[in-house]
Write a structure and sequence with these properties.
Blueprint: H1 4-9, H2 11-19, H3 27-63, H4 69-100, E1 121-126, H5 139-146, E2 149-150, H6 151-157, E3 164-165, H7 167-187, E4 191-192, E5 198-199, H8 201-206, E6 225-226, H9 231-236, E7 242-244, E8 250-259, E9 278-288, H10 293-310, E10 315-319, E11 331-339, E12 344-353, H11 357-362, E13 365-367, E14 375-376, E15 378-386, H12 387-397, E16 405-406, E17 420-421
Parallel strand pairs: 4-8, 7-13
Antiparallel strand pairs: 1-10, 2-3, 5-6, 8-9, 9-15, 10-11, 11-12, 12-15, 13-14, 16-17
Length: 427
């Protein structure tokens, strides 16, 4: 959500900033509705004050035995007018809210201009690409050959874009999540949280998923929504709160199932586990002081990168251009892991600083030490990592000519010391 004061003070700058996000000029309409709302509010207050004054006068006239009929008639007229202005103020406030909630966050000054992913900029590349050659297989071929990645069973149970993992691959899913959680909690100081997978509409509104992305979400018949990411419940833990400054930063992590209808991804990644309706992810969320959110983004992104480093996976960090960022993001780094089976990098984590955009929507604030009043916190989120895509990367990068998959050393303690996953018949 945007600060109306900023729009009033410099509407041209606001329009220019939103233009970077692909939004046409909108400040004039915002200010028009705001002016009508404020006018109705002023008229309401003026009539309310006049009515109160007349009510006091009526009481005095009656006490003195006079006729107050004319005054009472005026009070009734004022009462009717108050109701009209009150309704006008309420209607214009709702119109303003509807308009503002549809507008994305503005991009940070250091975010490059651009309209789509083709204009994102590479920040750095880490690790050597594993070159397997022409015989490199994609994860779904390898997983099916192992007999442990069953897309037919997934379709039988639930339809397209579902999978059933079995045996060592099912164990690897759990092992990866535990490895990530241990790293983030024991070394990076995140607090592990276990959240509900079902949330209320207000929770999704606060983090910016609703109303804009309703078609990409799953909703139950009784009004609950399945979370698309643990960012939603983790960030919403501070919804409506006024924190102490010395409580900041708050750092949370959670391993949860995530559910997305992928309505906007028709025809993309129809094979394999890259784009599923249900997947699991270890999420990182930070609630910070406004002056420290930029450095917190670097820290959070570094925590996600460390998972890739310890697993021995090559990756690159890119900064998203203004036109490719998510709705609530002010600045975003994507981490893309190298997949030799596909012969390209694929996103495995997206780390964003949302500034005060989400905090305004959910009224999450803190009280600065020694100061009156409150300020909005800054919120950040990122995958640390997407578990299924990390498994995909391991399968493709550590595949062997016999169809087996070598398990990275960092993961072996979580796999009971197992060094490789082998196809049936290979010892």
């Amino acid at each position: 959500m945007h600060d109306l004061k900023i729009i009033r003070d410099n509407p041209d700058k606001f329009d220019a900033e939103l233009k970077r996000r692909g939004v046409e000029e909108v400040s004039a309409r915002i200010l028009e509705i705001d002016s009508l709302r404020r006018s109705a509010q002023t008229a309401f207050q003026e009539k309310q004050e006049r009515r109160n004054a007349l009510s006091r006068k009526i009481g005095k006239v009656k006490k003195e035995g006079g006729n107050a009929d004319a005054l009472m008639s005026e009070v009734q007229e004022l009462k009717d007018g108050i109701s009209i202005h009150e309704a006008e103020e309420r209607d214009h406030a709702a119109m303003l809210q509807t308009l503002l909630q549809q507008l994305p966050n503005i991009a940070a000054p250091d975010v490059p201009d651009g309209e789509n992913e083709d204009e994102n900029l590479e920040v750095k590349v880490v690790g050597e690409k594993i070159k397997i050659g022409r015989d490199a297989k994609e994860h779904f071929d390898l997983g099916e050959s192992l007999g442990q990645m069953d897309f037919e069973a997934g379709a039988k149970l639930s339809g397209a874009r579902f999978v059933v993992l079995k045996g060592e691959l099912a164990r690897m899913e759990r092992a990866l999540a535990n490895f990530m959680l241990d790293l983030h909690t024991e070394e990076f100081g995140y607090q592990e949280i276990l959240t509900p997978a079902l949330v209320r509409e207000e929770t999704l509104y606060g983090t910016g998923q609703l109303p804009k992305f309703a078609e990409d979400l799953f909703r139950t018949e009784n009004g609950y929504w399945l979370i698309p990411t643990a960012e939603v419940p983790l960030t919403s833990l501070v919804s409506g709160d006024i924190l102490r400054e010395d409580e900041l930063p708050l750092r949370y992590t959670a391993w949860t199932p995530c559910f997305r209808s992928e309505a906007g991804a028709a025809g993309k990644d129809t094979r394999g586990m890259i784009r599923q309706h249900q997947f699991s992810k270890v999420e990182l969320v930070s609630i910070t002081h406004p002056e420290k959110s930029e450095q917190e983004l670097e820290r959070l992104t570094g925590c996600a990168e460390e998972v890739l480093r310890r697993l021995g996976l090559s990756y690159r960090r890119i900064i998203l251009c203004a036109g490719d960022m998510g709705f609530g993001a002010r600045k975003t780094y994507d981490l893309e892991v190298w997949l030799p089976g596909q012969g390209r990098y694929r996103e495995i984590s997206s780390c964003s600083n949302c500034w005060d955009f989400q905090a305004r929507r959910m009224q999450a604030r803190f009280r600065p030490n020694g100061m009156k009043g409150t300020k909005f916190v800054h919120t950040l989120n990122g995958s640390g990592l997407a578990v299924g895509r990390t498994m995909i990367a391991i399968i493709e990068n550590f595949q062997n000519v016999d169809g087996s998959v070598t398990i990275p050393e960092a993961l072996r303690p979580y796999m009971g010391g197992m060094e490789a996953i082998k196809p049936p018949g290979i010892t």
